[in-house]
Amino acid sequence: MPRYTYEQLYQEARFDLTGEDECQFIEEGGLGYIPSTKSDFLLVLRIREEGRQRMKKRKVSREYYQRLQERLLEITRVRNSSNKEKFDTLPEGEKESIREKHRWAQSSYRDWKRAELAAKAREAQLRKKAEKSSEGKA
Fold first, then answer.
1. Total number of domains in the chain
2. What is the average per-residue pLDDT within 111-117?
3. CA distances from 26 to 8, 44, 91, 97, 125 (A)
4. Do 125 and 78 belong together in one domain?
5. Which residue in 5, 41, 46, 102 has its CB near the most CB atoms, within 10 A?
6. Which domain holds residue 6?
7. How far apart are CA 52 and CA 14, in angstroms?
């Protein structure tokens, strides 16, 4: 099953439609099914409105980050250095406990994203092979 970006889903589900155009799109089965009752129809409209709101929030968040990226990165650097200083002052037992929790979080993430991470690793290997073969020809 292909993975879609949020933008692709937004375009495919035609979230840009509103009002009568949206109602007509839903009634014609543009979503893959036709709601059979009025309550189903209203539920679909509400879900679509929530989807539009989520998309707006994503867009605003992305724009905010792009606009303030340098400042946000500087804040992160300062926070990381202060956290490292705090960590360095802790007793060895607490440090080991924190390290263990961190290792557990990393392994949980890898287990959860195993297929996605494997696909990324394969893509990286293919890119390296392509670069080496293009360098060899040049």
1. 2
2. 92
3. 18, 8, 62, 54, 44
4. no
5. 41
6. 1-89
7. 10
